[in-house]
Amino acid sequence: ESGAVEVAIPTSAQGSHMVALTRDGTRAWTSDVGTGAVSEMDLTKKAFVRVIPTGPRTEGIAVAPDGSTVWAGSNTNGTVSVIDSKSGTIVETLSGFSLPYRLAISADGKTAIICDPQGNAIHVADVATRKVLWKLDALGSPRGVTIAPDGRTAFVTLADDPAVGVIDLVERKLVRKIGVGASPDGVGYGPPGP
User: Fold this and answer.
1) What is the C-alpha separation between 97 and 43, in angstroms, rounded?
2) Burial class (CB in 10 A: 0-12, 13-18, 19+), 11
3) Considering only CA atoms, which of 116, 123, 109 is closest in space to residue 140?
4) pLDDT by 10s per residue, the chain, length 194
5) Distance (Å, rounded) from C-alpha 124 to C-alpha 168?
6) Hey, what long-range contacts does 88-93 have (CB within 8 A, 24 or more apart)?
7) What H or E segment, with its residue span, contains residue 188?
8) Cα separation of 120 and 63, whole Å?
9) Is 52 helix (H, G, I), strand (E, B) or coil?
């Protein structure tokens, strides 16, 4: 409420860039581009927990809402590491991406989206099986991604257009583009105003 900084928690890594939070707000993970790792913080204790090596130039990151897994993309390797958050170990490595730049996981914890701007595609994965189910090609350099709370619609920034693409995840298609300023990257979703 006051807007004051409560505490600063060191990540113990280089180039901490993106951050992913559990739904309850008790844990945070950063992608550490320079170290090629993910750092975990306990937000209740306001303390650093550990660094988990993933792959060079780890940048894209998402966490399952319940905190069970953390997904982190290596820009160099073109892979996404799925980390078991309890053990801190990589339990699956997904491959076949040019640049897994940004990731998102749906509010129900079922669907993960990996944006691949070099491949001009998004990859949609099943979180439980940790497998890519389908891919949507011919997108203009998809960068940022967020998924609406109902899990049916994704919003993806398309840097080459420049626009926000509205993706129907049920029909598996781009349904609309909304023009925005040059080189869009991050995107968020919020409830409608009053």
Assistant:
1) 32
2) buried
3) 116
4) 999 999 999 999 999 999 999 999 999 999 999 999 999 999 999 999 999 999 999 999 999 999 999 999 999 999 999 999 999 999 999 999 999 999 999 999 999 999 999 999 999 999 999 999 999 999 999 999 999 999 999 999 999 999 999 999 999 999 999 999 999 999 998 877 77
5) 12
6) 88/40, 88/50, 88/52, 89/52, 90/52, 90/54, 91/130, 92/130
7) none
8) 23
9) strand
Structure tokens at 175: 């349904």
- Residues 127 and 110: beta-carbon distance below 8 Å: yes
The Cα–Cα gap between 164 and 79 comes to 25
d(CA 11, CA 147): 27
**Contact between residue 140 and residue 158 where contact means Cβ atoms under 8 Å apart:** yes
The pair of three-digit structure tokens given for residue 124, joined into one six-digit string: 């949609």
Q: With beta carbons less than 8 A apart as the criterion, state whether 100 and 80 touch.
A: yes
Burial of 70-99, coded b for 16+ CB within 10 Å and e otherwise, reads: bbbbbbebbbbbbbebeeeebeeebeebeb
Q: What is the pTM of this model?
A: 0.95
Q: Which amino acid, 135?
A: K
In whole angstroms, what is the distance from residue 48 CA to residue 10 CA?
6
